[in-house]
Amino acid sequence: MERIKKYVNYFSKTEIALWSLSVTLIAVSFAAFGRTDYFTLAASLIGVTSLIFCAKGNPAGQVMMIVFGVFYGIISYGFRYYGEMITYLGMSAPMAVLALISWLKNPYRGDKSQVKVNKISRRETVFMLVLSAMVTAVFWFILKKLGTANLVPSTVSVTTSFIAVYLTFRRSAYYALGYALNDLILIVLWIMAATEDINYISMVICFLVFLANDVYGFFSWLKMQKRQAAESEQQVSE
Prior knowledge:
The chain is an all-alpha fold. It has helices spanning 2-10, 13-32, 38-54, 60-78, 82-105, 122-146, 151-169, 175-194, 201-237, and strands at 107-108, 111-115.
């Protein structure tokens, strides 16, 4: 009971409301379309919960993101979204492991429940974009060879996913913006899937919920970055 109370106090009222609404929408959409694939439901709930922890800069979010990456990769395989499968199983999940290590090694003032926000230079940004282009080119040929459904958006998803996981590893506030862009691509992908099987509408709603959470996470990290910078300046002045 004390542990539950601790977590309730840890999150703001806005965060609790956002998480509660997100979980409700995912559960209702799952039930509304008569889905019996509870594996997909579990993945969605784990994913949206990870986002609220990540918005706080809490490494626990990365642990859940690893689990979600594995689950989502398996789900994507079922609809021949090989790009999503390879991206999450071969890139997002492993990068989440590296991000977890990075976050644990860089706590803010020794507080392991909050990572120290980092800023990347323009030079590193250019390096990231060049590396993203190279990864995208490689994946384009791989996914085309595998006969991936909806090849173009699937390939674009690789690009946005790579940028998101790279920025997550580097502890940049813009990681959430990268994931938000990826959510938009995934919404398009699953709308396409839903034209063949209406049950996939629940996945569309899932990523709409993820989009709202990632946008919140972006602004949360900007505030966290500003607060950490102000506290550091105050400490120097003292």
